[in-house]
Amino acid sequence: MVEPPQGPSRPQYDDEISLVDLATTFLRRRRVFYVIFLVVSLVGVVYALFVPEKYEYVSLMKLAEKANGTYVEEPATIIAELDSLWVPDLQATYHAENSRNLPFKLTASNPKDTGLIRIVSEASPPLAELIEKNHRKLIERLSSEQEQALSRLRKSLEKQIASLDSTIKMLEEGENTGDAIASAVEKQLALESDLQSLSPFEALVVSRQSGENAGTSRSLIVVLSIMLGLMAGVFIAFLAEFIGLVRNQLAGE
Question: Coiled coil located at which positions (predicted)?
Fold first, then answer.
């Protein structure tokens, strides 16, 4: 009777590791795991207890506005100036005076579809006074620039109105100038309306502290430290076993 061909047998390796071997190794080195887990977790808890709370400090400004919801200077232009000129100048001045960098960032943004400029810094409460001081410097610089731009626009409108007024008086002395006078008066009224609708720059909020901690949550730090302790403990336990086996091998040779 012919026996059916046998399939290829699975090779056996001496160095295969089973779950039982892993569990045995872990139990043998469990003291290493406990020590590493407790040390890492305690370090995380201590750090969570002593890490300083951070808050957001927000300044909010409204740009000078023209008629029809347009602005004397576009918000995007203001943000570009803040990011590329004014904030770096402020940081350089602080570094020159104190031989160190400003201990917080100054971030400027423009809420979508608004004429608002928002300056935000994140730091611990002891820096609140320094943050307010630097926010005010930026606000004062922006206010000065906005006032100058608004003044130039106001003078331009007043000049155009005065010119139209002279034109109207000249037309009144002529004949058959009714249509021209009406057009000039209409334009003059429109310019006067634009002049009246000019709205100045305004600082709405200066360095207001947020109500909630903007930094990493203490509970999150504790949870992450426990997870890190578990992973580090397991890794070090198996590493200790590996080192022990290597030493035994070298001792045997």
Answer: 128-174
Q: Quote the CA–CA distance of 131 and 104 in Å, as a whole number.
A: 8
> What is the C-alpha separation between 221 and 44, in angstroms, rounded?
7
pTM higher than 0.70 for the full model?
A: no
- Helices and strands of the chain, counted as H and E runs: 7, 4
Opening angle at CA 137, ends 91 and 198, nearest 5: 130
**What number of residues does the chain have?**
253
Residues 97 and 35 occupy one common structural domain: no
Structural domain span for residue 82? 55-209
Closest Cα partner for 136 from 204, 87, 207, 85? 207
C-alpha distance from residue 132 to each of 1, 9, 29, 93, 240 (Å)? 98, 78, 55, 16, 53
Which tens digit of pLDDT belongs to each residue from 173-223? 777 677 888 888 889 898 888 889 899 999 999 999 987 776 677 788 888
